[in-house]
Design goal:
The chain is of the alpha/beta class. It contains four helices and nine strands; from the N terminus they run βββαβαββββαβα.
Length: 218
């Protein structure tokens, strides 16, 4: 299998249960809920995506013909002086990473020394071997993956309410304010407050803020 990658970079996890953890981000190209083209946003299943995942022109992006080549490329972003000193993490994201992440790549990433985190929309069943699986439901897209480590819901969504997911088998439930800045929308601040108030009233949910945006980093 050839893997199409938008970008690879080292940063700090900015959201969810692992906020603050240094990680290599492996962003795959492509998604099954939106083409990534602005002219298609209105007809997309997921209309509020704020991520650029089209093409392979980002830092470290390209086509990788083998799982081993991609795993080696990802590990090259981890500080070499730290190898063996701490536990390297790679976050497979997108787009939708489960369109491409398969057993061979999971095995290769583990062999390279990584713990593997995945951020998925949940419409594709996850393969075995993932160390941290985070599912973020979008609109009325049917979930194929109903269990995992973290369910992270963007809030508010017209078609998804937090209580719709509380019965599912996840360890952590995170609520993340919707970022409408791509619309030049001033309501993002009200989304922050709404998510905060929902978590206060419903302590099953943790507030997830996109701290990397506050820091001005990726």
């Amino acid at each position: 299998m050839t893997y199409s990658v938008k970008e690879i970079f080292l940063s700090v996890q900015g959201e969810g249960a692992h906020t603050g953890r240094p990680s290599v981000f492996l962003r795959f190209a492509g998604c099954n809920l939106w083409s990534g083209r602005e002219q298609d946003r209105g007809a997309a299943v997921c209309k509020f995506c704020d991520t650029e995942f089209v093409g392979m022109d980002g830092l470290g992006g390209g086509q990788f013909k083998t799982a081993e080549a991609l795993a080696h490329a990802a590990m090259s972003y981890w500080p070499s002086h730290d190898l063996g000193a701490s536990e390297p993490w790679v976050i497979c994201t997108g787009g939708e990473p489960l369109l491409q992440l398969d057993g061979k790549l999971i095995e290769a990433l583990h062999k390279a020394g990584f713990k593997i985190g995945v951020e998925s929309n949940g419409t594709i069943k996850a393969p075995n071997g993932i160390d941290w699986l985070c599912i973020s439901p979008k609109a009325d897209a049917k979930l194929a993956q109903n269990s995992g480590d973290e369910l992270k819901l963007v809030y508010p969504q017209r078609l998804n309410n937090p209580e719709d997911f509380e019965h599912l088998d996840f360890k952590i439930f995170s609520l993340q304010p919707r970022d409408d800045s791509y619309l030049d929308d001033k309501k993002s601040g009200t989304h922050n407050r709404a998510a905060f108030e929902y978590c206060i009233a419903n302590p099953k949910w943790r507030l997830s803020l996109q701290t990397h945006k506050y820091l001005g980093v990726r």
